UniProtKB/TrEMBL annotation, chain A:
PROSITE patterns: ABC_TM1 (PS50928). Residues 109-302 form the ABC transmembrane type-1 domain. Coiled coil: none annotated. It is a multi-pass membrane protein. The chain crosses the membrane at residues 47-68, 113-139, 151-170, 176-194, 226-248, 284-305. This is Putative peptide ABC transporter permease protein.
Automatic annotation (TrEMBL), chain B:
GO terms for cellular component: plasma membrane. It is a peripheral membrane protein. GO terms for biological process: peptide transport. It comes from Arthrobacter globiformis (strain ATCC 8010 / DSM 20124 / JCM 1332 / NBRC 12137 / NCIMB 8907 / NRRL B-2979 / 168). PANTHER family: DIPEPTIDE TRANSPORT ATP-BINDING PROTEIN DPPD, OLIGOPEPTIDE TRANSPORT ATP-BINDING PROTEIN APPD. This is Putative peptide ABC transporter ATP-binding protein.
Amino acid sequence: MTSNYQADHYVAPIDETPLLATDSVRTDQAPLSLWAEAWRKLRRRPLFIVSALLIVLLVVIALFPGLFTQVAPNDNCDLQFSDGAPTAGHPFGYTFQGCDVFSRVIHGTQASLSVGVLSVIFVLVIGVTLGALAGFFGGWLDAVIARLGDIFFALPLVLGALVITQLPFFKDNKSVWTVVMVIVLLAWPQMARITRGAVMEVRNADFVTAARSLGVSRMGSLLRHVLPNALAPIIVLATMELGVFIVAEATLSFLGIGLPGSVMSWGNDIAAAQPSLRTNPAVLLYPATALSITVLSFIMLGDALRDALDPKSRQR
Amino acid sequence: MKVPHMTTSKISVSEAGASDVKPLLEIRDLAISFATSGGEVQAVRNAHLTIMPGETVAIVGESGSGKSTTALAAIGLLPANGRVSGGQILLDGEDIAGAPEKRMIELRGNTIGMVPQDPMSNLNPVWKIGYQVRETLRANGRPDGPDDVARVLAEAGLPDAHRRAKQYPHEFSGGMRQRALIAIGLSCQPRLLIADEPTSALDVTVQRQILDHLDKMTTELGTSVLLITHDLGLAAERADKVVVMYRGNVVEAGPSLDLLRNPRHPYTQRLVASAPSLASRRIQVAKELGVESEDLLAPSEASPGAAFTGTTAQHRAQQGKDKPEEVLRVENLSKVFKLRSGIGRSADFTAVDSVSFGVKRGTTTAIVGESGSGKSTVAQMVLNLLPPTSGRIVFDGVDTATLNSREIFAFRRRVQPIFQDPYGSLDPMYNIFRTIEEPLRTHKVGNRASREKKVRELLDQVALPQSTMQRYPNELSGGQRQRVAVARALALDPEVIICDEAVSALDVLVQAQVLNLLADLQANLGLTYLFITHDLAVVRQIADHVCVMEKGRLVETGATDDVFDAPQQEYTKALLNAIPGASLMLPPEVATA
């Protein structure tokens, strides 16, 4: 060839790109598990910080309502204050029955939160167990569990709850527990579905095959390898459902098929505020706002968790 | 040594005319940086390369070296967070590094074509092949009738192009899809074609066909090619010039043969020494320890100087002294899968068809085949994870089908697997200590303190620092994870290790490291390997015996050297010829320099 570029044999100066030992292990950083990594991502997100603070506040209110108000919610209701405007010591005013709104909102937190938390716990136990078994073993077990779930899945919450609460047992024993049972009965299939999908994704991973060829039993590999790796979507869904269940309780209570009137809850208070909606909307506003903030903080927390636990965003 | 591809392109250069040919593409001092959450990261620094009209230039480097990034910058398709932060990309003298998107759209397809890496994901599954070709033609203002589409596909070597154009991607094999992508890349007769690992997802024989055809087409059209590859042998065989990139820098560039024979930069020297396609002999660790090569086949006289670690290994070696017997024997093994082909109907698919072979203690037997040859199914059956349809697997004199569950548990201790995907085979929730400890815990070996001691020993054996114990798999590189997988497999002092494509996913240098480690361990512990791979070059480096499989059948078996030097079957010959760079095979003195 005439041109001289063919003969060029360029070599970079060696000090410019010094050779590294092939494949050396990083030792400059602390070890990082999945959870540690998620936490590092989370703690810098405003979404997480705000929602987590709100949830901590709500939990404290639910456990120690006495810290926030000295006024007993039911004892000194006086009809002379019916639908009264806020006064000193009663910042949110009075209900139709003349009870202190602020105190009722504070004391209502406990019922709402406990319905949410209890429902989520039972949904997790039932949904994760059935979903994991269906996803891991497949075959007829999967078919039976999937169809069973579909039956409950097809029932809208309110309609289903209307039917179930008319059963004599539920009619006679209205309490926090019956509301939880209704919600769990209608909500477990979604958790089972998510778990089933997550488990199916993991069950064929090489590390599960590796564990099996080490001699780990099928159940052992499900519990020790598959489930921990399928946990992320389950946690996200559980967080969001906590908020959803609190709304469900309020809806049922509002319709009169939820908590009995003797239990103080935001749903009951919203229902009780109906007659005075025109004259004193504030009575409705405060429990409704408390409900919204609670639901919002759980859904925001779920969102933040989803981003932090997203396997796609993990470094390899 | 002849290099046919160099001559062809030289002709086309001289055809292009004058002695003062101007470069088609010239990259000068290119710097590319990515904005990440951790700040600006420099992916490429000071890259420079020149492509003359009609010339083929290959960029070689390991993953993360910046080779693909450089090519993407040339066609203006950097990811949204990446930008050219310095230097020039001159196409025909025009700097396109900072060119507006409108200009780049004009250039793409017409002037610069691209063949992407993965044929499986780069065709849109919801559109017919013909439509996808027509889309390209139309976007570049070319005639786009059905005949034009068929002509483009036919030129890329797809027979019966009219009918093929009406099919969907899922009806095509991997090789056919790659041909369709080449057809799309070359449909508008660009002057420069960027081929990013165009064949790394394909079997070697298909790879050869595709590259031959690509060569032919680009020579006819006088197209310049920028070939991105991780395979030095392939680059040297196909390109006029090779550019070696390392950590974002061009470390060496030159005419391919010259670069291959006289690598000057230490990185290139390392790369040449490790390239499996260029090596011509087995890794002889034992020899260095003072053992004669015949002993590799019979570890009975294993060197007394070799370091035995476990007592089991010592015991085993003494046992081996008396009888170098077959530890594993596979007889007429078959596996038939039922494929559902409609309600109530099913078709039989014979994945493994009456395969027989034996594995001697302390040796390495490789099963080689292309995808779909049934080699991995054999591995699954030998591991007792999949029941055979017929035939026997005899391990240490016992038919594994007759084992009860307790005996299978004991069998698992003696036969361990290492899998292909270093990212998938370690549980991401387990730290390295728990991962390696798991087999010991499962088999209730020792107490916590003794298990920890054993884990530390194992990490030493696979040359990982003991501080790795507290880390998680996502903090390790592919090669390190594979070494952890080796350590886990070794934890129970197994006799046989089944390596299912254990090094296929690794970069060349790391692959060489792991192969050396495996050879070391074999020499020291008297291990027996059954090595499943598609890569004949790797077979040559590690195996004593080789079984070639094609479509479920065993077509040829024999000692590795015999098979490589005098292959008996057409299929084996085709496989051997398809190893890229085989014709450039270097004498060992160079390869070990």
